[in-house]
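Changelog note: in this version the structure field was regenerated for every chain. One regenerated record is shown below for reference.
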Amino acid sequence: MSIEFMFRLVGMIVFSMMGAYLGVYLANTLSIAPQGYGSVFGLLGALFGLIMTPFLTTRPVRALRSRIMQLSPQALTAGMIGLIAGLLVAALLSFPLSLMPQPFGQLLPFAGVIIFGYFGVSIFIMRQADLFVVLRSWSGRSASTDETTGEAAAPVRTVLLDTSVLIDGRIADIARTGFLVGILLIPRFVLNELQYIADSPDSLRRQRGRRGMEVLGRLQKETTVPVRISDIDVDGVREVDDKLVVLARQLRCPILTNDYNLNRVAELQGVAILNVNELASAVKLVLLPGEQLRVRLIQDGKEAGQGVGYLDDGTMVVVEDGRSAMNKEAVVSVTKVLQTAAGRMIFARLSE
């Protein structure tokens, strides 16, 4: 039996009794038989309680809970400090306000609590970043200076992980190198999507999902980058990509992904993106015409006499007249480097 159904039953009983008492009161006021009025108003009260009780009890609580879950810990802490500060100001002003002529002496202290509480929460949430800088300096941990070296300390940032980057697998190697700084945050809905893929009846999708699970395990065990799985969610949004974008805007953090569509949608909404494919393109070896390299030719090219090989990073090398060195490691001289949307291609010829 759900909590909402229990509240419906309780509300039905309470409003039924209230309706019956109201019907009897009206019947006595009108000097008529109370039985009919009591029964009718009791049934109306029971119907009202059965329908409206969730809107008065459980649903507002759920809406408040979901709203609180969407707040970052920093914003929630700043709001609580602001509320306390506003209530303290209202308490200090309540005594002089109570000395004013009636009815102002009774109304203004209560109004002061509402007004100063609201302004305290609003102001402290708007200035939460500055507030935490001050709190860290007061606690002896300056936000701008490291305790041991005295040098400027980099702020710790949060990075949201997409399902595609876990399935891809390269994130574990990047994190192990130490170039990735911050806390890797994996929302529960991303983990649920990864589990759904791992349980897919399609063998290829199932293998990709299981690889994502293995990569997540490697991130938690082998890397020094903190990995955190959070139950934070976004209400009113069903798609995982849309939830990531909304959550990134709320937390003011980037999304780590290699999904092209998510990349474009996030950029249009002003969300920072860390794309693994762009990183891979940026760190590829720069080759100039005339440089020599070793490559193993493994297949024929599209043109007659061409041979095709691949570098360790997957870059295709097309060698003119390379068919004579098929299935051998050859020394080639670069003639042209072509950058396309699909990647980079290197054209070369056999060195003499």
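Spot check on this record: Residues 292-350 form a domain with the OB fold (Dihydrolipoamide Acetyltransferase, E2P) fold (CATH 2.40.50). DSSP finds 13 helices and ten strands in the chain.
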